[in-house]
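Hey, resending since the last one bounced:
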Amino acid sequence: MKALQIFLSASLLLLGSCSRTFEITPKMIDGQLTFIDERVPHRCVSSVVVMKLASAQAPDEPYERWRARTTAWVDYGGYGCDDRLPLVYGQALRGNAEGSPESEVAPAPLEVGEVYVVAVGSGATAMGSANFRMLADGRVEELPRAGLTGEDTAP
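The structure tokens again:
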């Protein structure tokens, strides 16, 4: 769990110095997992990270292997507001990437029942997140939000 805390903290640093937060809501729209902000529907998107929430790193597991096992999607679009919400899972961000291409992760299929966290950066000063899981019938279930303290909110 400590490795998860470190990874999420590092991811948030990559998302920018966050002085503002907003709520992301995962929804199925036209059969696609879509991340929205109900208060600011067309908010700019500068980056996105999706990873398994409760995936502890084994003491002898190399960080690169753990990251590959737990990270579902990482993309950077830059600060030019070329990308906006709503954001479909796996949709490539068009902006000029601020992150290094080596740190981006192509979208992987999401596992039914697995708890994920999505973190969406907006510009250099805002970040939104949500916890969710995919259900066997193709729906998405939003779960209670947790801080970056390692608590697991999965039932």
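The CA atoms of residues 112 and 134 lie 5 Å apart.

Sorry for the duplicate.
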